[in-house]
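Input chain follows. Return structure tokens only.
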Amino acid sequence: MKIKGITDVFFDLDHTLWDFDKNSALTFEKIFKKHEVHVSLNDFLHVYEPINLNYWKLYREERIDKASLRYGRLKNTFDEISVPITDELINLLSVDYIAHLSDNNHLFEGTFEILDYLKFKYNLHIITNGFHEVQHNKLRNSNIENYFKTVTNSEMVGVKKPNPKIFKHALTLAQVKPENSIMIGDNWEADILGAINLGIDAICFNVHGTELDNDIKQISNLLELKTYL
């Protein structure tokens, strides 16, 4: 069923349009080779991915800073897989990871098609918890930057989703009311609950297969947005 009254569509970036896990894996493959880190990439990623998600949760909740996130997720992973590594090398990997992450720009299936479909009907925007310099490069290098009228990131606001301040900032920047807006993202807490709590409708791009309440609109492929918009 089409949702009426919507003029502006807000997208999360990582895990929603930009295929973070795939691009991240390619980045680790590159920097491990550069620094001669001899570890099974699959074994590393199997442990790293849930650790990374937990660190991002702590970062969203203002319980750690950016430096702790970047160092801790790597340190914990190497400790977990029993690979000895120096702090110096962890810091080098951390810097190179950020530097090279936007070299790979795989998008989820249907990204260009759905953005082309939506751009004639709605104003499109980004709200992201990612770091400013990295997110800008992702948008530009993946050739989707020009679809979006505004981009709001957590560093410019000083808080992260689900904090209502970041959503209010995005609405002000877009010059739109909550009732005329909809948020599309993968994270239940940050994207969906954060938007709903401010009176913004939301659709969950449920790539993680999270069990959600029946009243939450959800999709498993971006092209399914055509059902709602």
